[in-house]
Amino acid sequence: LDLSPNLFTELPIIQICNFSNLFLLDLSDNKITNMTNRFSQLSCLRFLKRLDLSFNNISSGLISSDFDDFFGYDLVYLNLNNNQIPLVETQVFFRNDNLPRFPNLTYLGLANNRIKLLDLLWPLTMPMDGLKVDLYNNPIDTLVNMMYLDYSLDLFV
User: Which sign does the torsion angle of CA 59, 104, 132, 140 carry?
Assistant: First the structure.
């Protein structure tokens, strides 16, 4: 379902959930500003593999309370590039049972946002084969490295 470009200011959850078998949802190039609690509402899309929310005006941070344990398991592509996202909590990448929320992800686009802090635990929660995390052009000025990870590890390639 391609709903780009349009003038949506929020996710049309009620209408979208009628298409529970969707595997691709493109809402790029809209005017969405807030994703607070919206990712958990997208759990109605049981087979969702690709979600594109790039080129919106999302200014809410990605925090764990915005997600539930049913969103993201089959997701392979999540594009949030070109928004105004200020932060991404590390707990977003963990389900409530501490298993990875996105075990099949191959692309996470966070380029051209306003992320200032990067917790180096993120790569440990992600699949190791073929994952690209795009953080280009963010004003990252703080790296959290509580486990004293060595940047020469293969997981940072």
Answer: positive
pLDDT, averaged per 10 consecutive residues of the chain (157 residues), comes to 96 94 97 95 95 98 92 94 95 88 92 92 67 92 72 55
Distance, in Å, from the CA atom of 152 to the CA atom of 45, rounded to the nearest integer, reads 38
CA 99 to chain centre: 16
Its pTM stands at: 0.90
Instruction: Give the per-residue SS3 of 59-116.
Output: CCCECHHHCCCCCCCCCCEEECCCCCCCCECHHHHECCCCCECCCCCCEEECCCCCCC
CB neighbour list of residue 141: distance below 8 Å, 6 or more residues apart: 116, 117
User: How many Å apart are CA 44 and CA 30, to the nearest integer?
Assistant: 21
Question: Is-contact 91 65, C-beta < 8 A?
Answer: no
DSSP count for the chain of H helices, then E strands: 2, 7
Using a 10 angstrom Cβ sphere, with 0-12 exposed, 13-18 middle and 19 or more buried, the burial of residue 20 is exposed
